[in-house]
Amino acid sequence: MAPAKVVKKESVYTIDCSGPASDGILDTAALENYLVTRIKVEGRTNNFGKNIAVSRSNNEIKVTVSPNIQFSKRYIKYLTKKFLKKSSLRDWLRVVASSKSAYEVRYYNVDQAADEE
């Protein structure tokens, strides 16, 4: 008997920016635009086609990836960190994995560091 074919599902990665965006520090539209212009598919930028879709709803950005291309969740974290560095927000914000397919942009825990000193 032949093995059954495994049907791959499309991956959906989310970046939750609700904390900093509600405070007015982080612009989610600018982050979405940055991701659209910087994500590379097959070594080229702006080569999305039907393989990748980037969408924004309120303070959450979703990157939908079709199963026929190789794409890692880590690459989204890398690009988000580059955006924070470019926007001079890297000193106050960090990118943390909140689940298997989601990241969250959070503030550094400053109170805890001050108590230790």
From TrEMBL:
GO terms for cellular component: ribonucleoprotein complex; ribosome. GO terms for biological process: cytoplasmic translation. This is Large ribosomal subunit protein eL22. InterPro entries: Ribosomal_eL22 (IPR002671), Ribosomal_eL22_sf (IPR038526). GO terms for molecular function: RNA binding; structural constituent of ribosome. Belongs to the eukaryotic ribosomal protein eL22 family. Keywords: Ribonucleoprotein, Ribosomal protein.
